Amino acid sequence: MIRLVLFEIIWIFFQVVLVAIAYGYLLKLHKLVTMGILAAVGAAIPFFRDLPQDIRIIGPLACLAVSLVYLFFHAEGIVNEPILDRKTAFLRAGMMALSTLGTDKKVYRTFFEKEEYDENGYRISRCRLPKGFKRRCEMVDGSHVEIYTPENPNEKVVFMLPGGGFAGRFTDFKMSYTWDYSAALHGARIIVLDYLTTLDGVRCPHPLEEAVKVYRWILKKGVRPEHMIVAGDSAGGNLELVFLDYLKREGLPMPRAGVTFSAWTDLTATSPSFQSKKRYDALFGGNRVIYIAAEEYIKGTGKNLEDTDVSPYFMSDFSGFPPMLMQVGSNEMLLSGTVDVAKKMILSGVDVTLEVYSGMYHEFQRGSQFNYQARMAWNHVESFAANVFSE
């Protein structure tokens, strides 16, 4: 019983250390080593049967007390300003704790939700839609498409390419994007491509092939390209840039504009922010998920991560692209992937609006109900759309 209680105390302490690391309290290597030694000693003492029982009880508690004192008097997040806000810190700690459950591969598969599909291949959603907002699914030559229509739709359409590391499919977790985009465009219909991913057994360039196929289908349905915005988040932002480049090269009609949220443009993980922002990134900083996802995307294809249809970060000529709005958080490992691409777009003569939101994390726009910067970001999407459609 005593051992069980002591184990629980040590485990709780371990969780506290995880949160502390995530919150920016412990950044120096010697501090992490010191805390690790104290935790190891505290956890080992109860198993030394030759020690007096009082020592086996008091020892771990003493290690815990010393560790907490060390934490509160030496932690950078207390002595100085913490790196992360509390909510983001707990998210980071949760991801770090998940990484202790097994191998990187297991964490990678756990990271991406597996959706349920009915006998027709349509995704089963349990998300409550806003009043008057309707959802229906279609299969377009094997591609799963979800169409969201507001109560009084206008002629505008957002062709949405969702993210998920080219491993996860479209989920209820991202459905709020549909009504937020619709509201920002004052009643636009949203067409979401739920493309197959690596966990379905496909690799690059399959998502692009699906995007082109569904885009042609949308045009055949009578939607004019000048009434359309293409939008991509994370890996969907990567796909969007590769998709637009394909349209340009093939001479196909361009949509009116493009929007990216936290675009994952550099699958090589060599752009500067992959290192400089690693300790700040709540989602990817404490695990190897993003690196495994990149490797899986080209596995067995003969492609390299530097290829421009894999990493649009390495494209040099963006001329011919439509006006672009690119949003990213300042605390993302993917920061450079957006900033550097936007700079290249400017040099290519593209009308691009780059927005970096201070202190924000990956795809912070999902938090529009509780995050004022997310609400600001959606207001800017609304302004951007109004400007491009008025020209």
How do you describe this structure in short?
By secondary structure, this protein is an alpha/beta fold. 43% of the residues lie in helices and 12% in strands. It has an eight-stranded mixed β-sheet, with helices on both faces.
Terminal residue distance: 73 Å
Tell me roughly what share of residues is in helical segments: 40-55%
Query: Roughly what is the average pLDDT, rounded to an integer?
Result: 86
Class derived from helix and strand content: alpha/beta
Uncertain runs are none
Largest β sheet strand count, sense and barrel closure: 8 strands, mixed
Strand percentage, roughly?
5-15%
What best-fitting shape do the alpha-carbon axes yield? elongated
Q: What is the gyration radius calculated from CA atoms?
A: 24 Å
For the largest beta sheet, what order do the strands appear in spatially? 1-2-4-3-5-6-7-8
Number of strand elements: 8
Question: Could you please describe the fold and organization of this structure?
Answer:
The protein has helices at residues 2-22, 29-44, 53-74, 76-79, 86-98, 104-111, 176-184, 206-220, 235-250, 273-276, 289-298, 335-347, 372-390, and strands spanning 134-140, 143-149, 157-161, 189-194, 228-233, 257-261, 324-329, 352-357. By secondary structure, it is of the alpha/beta class. The chain has an 8-stranded mixed beta sheet, with helices on both faces. α2 (29-44) packs antiparallel against α3 (53-74).
